[in-house]
From TrEMBL:
It is found in: Cytoplasm. The keyword DNA damage does not apply. It comes from Mesorhizobium atlanticum. GO terms for biological process: trans-translation; trans-translation-dependent protein tagging. Pfam families: SmpB. This is SsrA-binding protein.
Length: 159
């Protein structure tokens, strides 16, 4: 018997920063936890979040997610959260030292790639250590993407 695996409602992507891979050269990724309030989690479960203009910063021995947008949860009257507040990221001490060292010494940037719920139902953030691409690197990426798309079309036509 062929069993169809159902999509787990807990393990799904809520927000993705698709432009980050175009604008930055991703060198390493780290899964981090998020410190959220109850209304923020409910807003995430509704699939409403935006991390397009957000970034992470190491300040005072902690890592913060800055400028991410989680809209207010409509059913929570006065107990709501600020949509663009700074959110603390949960990482181990070793990872925090690695991240802060790469940002300070090597001039890297901490870019959030996506927010998702893991198999235990916890909100996680995929954080990338990245280096900004120059204009000619972006053009090269676009050429490779166009060529791979064209190559796929040619192979599909010829069988």
């Amino acid at each position: 018997m062929n069993q169809v695996k159902k999509a787990d409602p807990n393990n799904r992507t809520v927000a993705e920063n698709r432009k980050a891979r175009f604008s930055y050269e991703v060198l390493d990724t780290i899964e981090t936890g998020l410190v959220l309030t109850g209304t923020e989690v409910k807003s995430l479960r509704q699939g409403q979040a935006n991390i397009q203009e957000s970034y992470a910063s190491a300040e005072g021995g902690e890592i913060w997610l800055i400028n991410s947008y989680l809209p207010e949860y409509l059913q929570a009257n006065r107990f709501n959260h600020e949509p663009r507040r700074r959110r603390k990221l949960l990482v181990s001490k070793r990872e925090m030292a690695k991240l802060s060292q790469s940002v300070e010494r090597e001039g890297m940037t901490l870019v959030p790639l996506k927010i998702y719920f893991n198999d235990r139902g916890r909100a996680k953030l995929l954080l990338a250590i990245a280096r900004g691409k120059k204009l000619h690197d972006k053009r090269e990426t676009e050429k490779q993407r166009d060529w791979s798309r064209e190559k796929g079309r040619l192979l599909k036509e010829r069988g």
